[in-house]
Design brief:
alpha+beta, flat, 27 helices, 25 strands
């Protein structure tokens, strides 16, 4: 009784982890437990095992097709495994087993585990395949899984059972719990790995299944939309014309018929009042299409009975296939009467229940979609689309399915279409709610046998075997491990200490890297601020043409150097996950044109023409980071100019709305340059990658631009792709998905005219800046705007100044001697008299941590060095507009 109960409970536990195909499980502790009990207690265990096996097998629904005597044979196989294992041990081993000899342990584990299990699992699999229609791959997979599950259970669990009791086979161990703990630990690891791997594999295949059914659902929606468009087009035809002839109707339907799916008929059904019946019937007779308006009865077509009005079919194309339906009054046709009334009442597309079509009365899979036609608010008739739903679904299935699923569609009451081989007991199921014109419907999908074969996971089986071998080695040398326990602890402690030290060094290196980036940013940007600032001032003040030419070249080279610095810093931020995008409204067309204007002179130097092909929608506004959007375009256009010797560059732009309040921006940059070989296209978006080593020598560049384009595109929910051939040019396509936005109010837009001078005349601000050159640049950039400024060298001097003065705005540097910008800003914001003064950070290095700290102080705006007059104008316009 104990054996039967133990066997039953262990089988139920193992059944929780049954393979997707059923019948066997890799987690099968019952084999090891029962063999250990058999070694301890002998024949009673066989009786309990057999009784429990028979009871369990008769309960299995999967085995219902198998005769009773086969079920008895399957039950006996479990008993055979116990007897065979014991006989092999008695035949080939010296009893009791000398556990101190590794060779004896190996023999015992091999005989009771892999060898005995191989024989019994082979008999089990052959018996199943004889009576069940299993695919060959499934049969082999189940056989191997049965074998692996049994022998893993035996080699790890049977020794545990033997260590717990007295037996003539294995003497009592001095320290059994060490061996037991090790065996259980290894077994748990193996089972856990298998379970997680199996679950992950199943989840991946389930996701694959769900992805495979999406084209079907999408195509179904597309078909519905097309049918609606057909009917709306027909409605427009009859609204636009006083009279439509049959020839005109045919010509029109010929233009809108879609070749990719079959519609049995497109038709027009006029509203005919009784007083106009004879005229209508004479028209049908003159065309040889019948003499009466007719109704469909059980005995066939009959002249329609007199009634106030009729809705007969007048036009139907293709006419040859639908001629028998001409003149049929559908208003009296019971299956469609309610649908017609609903379509007229609600003025929308309405689908009928499944019905037998006049054109094909031996099938009940036809449906009709009606749409009312009104003219001057008066009903003049209906247009209809007739098709066979089963054929339509089959066409969709043939175009989208690779034998991965079967389907069933249902809508309304008792309207069900099911594909061949659809079954409810498949491994994967998914149901999708779908609108079928005016009805709520369901699409149910089930996996096919062919698709389910992908669940066979040979890799996991072999990894488990390998893990089992490792586990056996662990169990064999358990006593050796115990002997060297102290040494092992010491080594573990040393290794842990080394790892902790390494971890500390890595943390220190990361901190040092961030500090280095901040310092290098500051050191690069400070002199660049002087170069770019004085260049802009000189361009404004010096009128000599030669000097202007030189200054333009200096400005161009400075911009290139700044872009290189930005690229290096940006790629570091991206790799650390510290690059945050701004969110403000911008117009893709305006930003793209500004980039083109920025680089137009560079292109002109090489006689390269830049063409723009913008769709009208490219002017739609979106919410996002306009600076990073321009950075993408600058890198792409820079590359196009760099690698194009002659010819042109085309820039195409488009912006399309989506259904979830976003817009898809598409920008294509196509050049006629040197192109990129197919081999080098694979890594062109990697950081520091150039197409060839000679490219850097000839054209220059850091190899960071395209990597930044790729990562920025992905941060904006998009991607970038490349098409290129050597010596024929390259085409980069960027797609971004950003939230929809609208054009900001005028006071939210950037300044309108930088050329206006003295705009803020009479306003004084405070500039806190320790670099004398930067002080001069700020002063000169502010002067044309009419702003005067007082200069101090650090935070302490700023606080002293504010004791006597209250400026309208403070431009605050961060890295300064004596007192830094954040410390000074914190003190200012805590002062009731001064806290309302706007503070704008003016710094060469503004990182994520700086922005977070600034936000805590209520500082929202930053001007990054190097800056231009436009940057100053922006913050002045924002904070001082009320003073103008």
């Amino acid at each position: 009784m104990i054996a039967a109960c133990a066997h039953f409970l262990l089988v139920k536990f193992g059944s929780l982890f049954t393979l997707p195909f059923g019948y066997v499980s890799l987690i099968w502790p019952v084999s090891g437990v029962m063999l250990g009990l058999y070694f301890l207690y002998g024949r009673p265990i066989i009786v309990g095992t057999l009784v429990s096996s028979l009871f369990i097998f008769y309960q299995q629904s999967l085995l219902s097709p198998i005769p009773s005597y086969i079920i008895i044979a399957l039950s006996a196989i479990g008993v055979l495994q116990l007897i065979l294992s014991k006989q092999l041990v008695n035949r080939f081993l010296v009893i009791p087993i000398r556990t101190h000899k590794p060779s004896e342990i190996i023999k015992f584990l091999l005989l009771t585990g892999p060898i005995a299990s191989l024989i019994t699992s082979s008999i089990f699999a052959l018996t199943l395949s004889t009576w069940l229609n299993l695919h060959a791959d499934v049969w082999v997979y189940l056989w191997m899984a049965k074998w692996i599950g049994d022998f893993i259970s035996i080699i790890f669990i049977t020794p545990i059972i033997l260590f717990l009791g007295e037996t003539r086979y294995i003497p009592r161990a001095k320290r059994p719990f060490a061996a037991i703990t090790t065996s259980l630990l290894v077994l748990t690891i193996i089972f856990s790995f298998y379970y997680l791997s199996n679950q992950n594999n199943y989840a991946e295949k389930e996701q694959y299944f769900l992805e495979s059914i999406q084209p079907f659902t999408k195509e179904m929606n597309t078909v519905q939309t097309t049918i609606k468009h057909h009917l709306i087009a027909l409605d427009g035809l009859f609204q636009a014309s006083e009279s439509v002839t049959r020839t005109e109707f045919k010509a029109f339907t010929d233009t809108i018929f879609q070749p990719n799916f079959k519609i049995r008929a497109l038709a027009f059904l006029p509203l005919i009042y009784d007083q106009d019946r004879k005229i209508f019937e004479q028209k049908l007779s003159s065309e040889g299409l019948g003499e009466h308006i007719k109704s469909l009865t059980d005995s066939g077509f009959q002249p329609a009975k007199t009634q106030p009005y009729y809705i007969p079919i007048l036009f139907s194309e293709p006419l040859a296939l639908n001629k028998s339906a001409i003149g049929l009054d559908v208003s009296t046709h019971p299956p469609v009467k309610n649908s017609i009334n609903k379509a007229i009442k609600e003025k929308k597309h309405v689908i009928t229940p499944l019905l037998s079509l006049v054109q094909q009365q031996n099938k009940y899979t036809g449906v009709i979609v009606y749409y009312p036609t009104f003219k001057d608010n008066a009903l003049i008739g209906l247009v209809e689309a007739v098709f066979e739903l089963d054929s339509l679904l089959l066409n969709i299935n043939n175009s989208t399915n690779n034998n991965r699923f079967t389907y069933q569609m249902s809508y309304g009451d008792d309207n069900v279409i099911t594909s061949d081989s659809h079954r409810s007991d498949s491994m994967f199921h998914h149901t999708v709610g779908i609108n079928i014109f005016d009805k709520k419907g369901l699409l149910s999908f089930s996996s096919t046998d062919e698709f389910e074969l992908i669940l066979i996971d040979w890799g996991s089986l072999f990894v488990i075997i390998f893990g089992c071998i490792i586990g056996i080695i662990c169990v064999m040398f358990i006593f050796l491990i115990i002997s060297f326990n102290h040494s092992l602890k010491r080594k573990v402690k040393e290794s842990t200490a080394e790892l902790m030290k390494t971890n500390e060094e890595l943390l220190y290196a990361n901190t040092a890297k961030n500090l280095f980036l901040a310092n290098i940013s500051h050191e690069y940007r400070t002199p660049l601020n002087a170069i770019i600032g004085f260049t802009e001032i000189a361009q404004r003040e010096i009128k000599d043409d030669n000097a202007q030419n030189y200054l333009t070249k200096i400005n161009h080279s400075s911009t290139i150097l700044l872009n290189i610095v930005n690229d290096v810093l940006d790629i570091s931020k991206m790799q650390a996950g510290e690059l945050n995008l701004e969110n403000r409204s911008f117009n893709p067309s305006i930003e793209t044109l500004s980039v083109i204007e920025m680089l137009n002179e560079k292109a002109a130097e090489k006689s390269i023409k830049i063409n723009t092909i913008f769709a009208e929608n490219f002017n739609l506004w979106v919410a996002g980071d306009d600076f990073r959007f321009k950075q993408i375009l600058i890198n792409l256009l820079n590359n196009a100019i760099k690698f194009t010797q002659k010819g042109m560059i085309n820039i195409e732009g488009d912006c399309q709305d989506t259904d979830h309040n976003t817009r898809i921006i598409t920008v294509v940059v196509k050049d006629t340059g040197i192109g990129i070989s197919e081999e080098h296209q694979k890594h062109i978006f990697n950081a520091f990658a150039q197409a060839e080593g000679s490219t850097t020598r000839k054209y220059g560049g850091t190899g960071l631009g395209l990597s930044i384009v790729k990562q920025l595109s992905e941060l904006m929910n998009g991607n970038v792709t490349l098409k290129s051939k050597q010596k024929e040019g390259s085409e980069f396509t960027v797609t971004l998905e950003l939230p929809q936005s609208s054009k900001p109010c005028k006071n939210e837009l950037a300044f309108d005219n930088l050329t206006q001078t003295m705009q803020f005349k009479g306003i004084n601000i405070l500039v806190v800046e320790d670099n004398k050159i930067n002080q001069i640049i700020v002063q000169k950039q502010l002067k044309p705007l009419g702003v005067t400024c007082d200069l101090v060298n650090d935070g302490e001097q700023a606080l002293a100044y504010l004791e006597m003065h209250k400026p309208k705005l403070i431009l605050m540097d961060l890295q300064m001697p004596n007192m830094d910008g954040f410390t000074a800003s914190s003190i200012i914001k805590q002062n009731e008299h001064l806290k309302d003064i706007p503070i704008v950070i003016l710094s060469a290095s503004v990182g994520k941590a700086d922005k977070e700290r600034a936000a805590e102080l209520g500082i929202e705006d930053f001007i990054n060095k190097p800056f231009q007059q436009a940057d100053l104008h922006h913050v002045l316009n924002k904070y001082l507009s009320a003073e103008k």
